[in-house]
Amino acid sequence: MKNDKFIPGLVLVLIGLAFLLDNFGYINFHWSNIFHLWPIFLIIAGVNLVFAHNNTPIAYAAKIGVIILGFGLLLFGNFGDRFNWPYNYTWHSGHNHNHDNNDSDDDDDDDDDDTTGVKGIVKIEGNSNFNVPFTADAKTAELHISGGGTQYNLTDTTDQLFKADTKEHFNSYELSHSNSGSNYVLNFDMKEKHGGHFNWGNDDNKNAVNFKLNSSPIWSIYVEAGAAGLDFDLSKYKVQKIKLSGGAASFKVKLGEPLATTDIEVSTGMASVNINIPQNAACEIETDSGLSSNNFDGFTKTSDGNYQTPGFASAKNKIHINISGGMSDFKVNRY
Fold it and tell me: Staple 308 to which of 138, 198, 244, 312, CB 3.0 to 4.6 Å?
């Protein structure tokens, strides 16, 4: 068995069988296992890399064994209520609270409104609005986002420095910000980490945040999320750096023309990553992606794990993309 595609092929076959058996009712697959046990895929990828150049029967047995054990735990593991919110839920809608640039105190006051006065019953849904005014001295800005179980969207600009509208399900968010001279730092975090699950196909039961940013400053964006979705159209912004970290995540990013240097760093466990760059942008991709699938249309492979667009070396403005992941689907498209 010298075919280096055997192990990735086996993983895909097992994933397909899991979907098929669950669809026909032969197994009762607990889908939340994927989001709580996604590090299993990192272990599978790690074992595959450790024995990458070892073709002995022991090496293949180790690769296949960890895959079978990992998928057995994913498919048949039943953790009961271990990962569930320990209260009985009731539905409350229409909860709105506005936040200006002094959000922190307001957020603390809102905590008292989370209960209805009946023991064991908590608020599970609400909406919030966050704003930070723009000032002319803001030349650069950093946006730090932390929290899983959320769909993050950015599609439009604002005359504020920062604007966010949220839909909250089991969780809430808080915003803090500071500045040092002309550099502004904004921290947008999930406040109450109640272990809310990310419902990929159910918009009614999903945490969601819609961001709007001012297009004047040069932006750096940092995202740390577990199971999360992200769809950022940054084509109208000047972007210096993007760093995306996630487990079972779906990241979609569209960039505009690069600065002298625009750096993108993506680190995932089991994820779908789609990055769109302008057709004429000079771009270099470096990958260390384990069992991942890579699709870099219009790029030339220059060495193992390195890809470049034509004329990259002589270009004045460049995009650098660094990708690492356990078992993910990475795509970089030119539009």
Answer: 312
